[in-house]
Give the backbone structure.
Amino acid sequence: MKKRFDISAAALHILAMAFMLMDHLWATLLPAQEWLTCVGRLAFPIFAFMVVEGYYHTQSFKRYALRMLAFALLSEIPFDLMYGDTWFYPVHQNVIWTLLLGLLGIRVMDKAKETKKIWYYVLSCAGVTVLGTIIATVGMVDYYGAGVLTVFVFYFFRGRQWWKLLGQILALYWLNVRLLGGQLYPVSIFGAEFEICQQGLALLALVPIWLYHGRQGYHSKTFQYVCYAFYPVHMLVLALLVR
């Protein structure tokens, strides 16, 4: 039987880190290379997807959440230095806070689901979605409410049924193009003129995400912590290089 090509969880993590590095290089050292931030749009949806997968595969939710909390705290000063050129930049918080809010929201909704009471689960999902969006927006975490909603999209439409894949496309389109919007690029194909939204390129992240079929790939404690540490370390390095 012909072997199916797929992407492992480890490979997805590496891809997401590479895309994020490109985006941050554009934001610091290479602002003229706009293609870097275009490619960088693919990073966050992959991280959001991996948080959901991590929730379902972790052996201890408590340790998973505490680990994210620890690295969210460790990453804040490097993030502030890179984006605000200061040790304290309260108007924008790093992306791990966004992912952590999404993870906690999933936990609450999943607990409600375990009660087997549909009405309670639906009300819980609605309440958590609204509350998570408000907290993320007021707290000014990276990607604001849209970031937390992205995590919830991969929770609500987790699976490979066609309608779930369609749900991912439509939801990410609404979040990235309609809600976040941003830079537009004019494009002409065969005489037809239209515009492509830069943030809309985030939908291309679905390609590697859909190539993931549950295979973990390489895994070790060292690799796990390298993936976490990469975020604050590379931001600190970039912040120091810009100074």
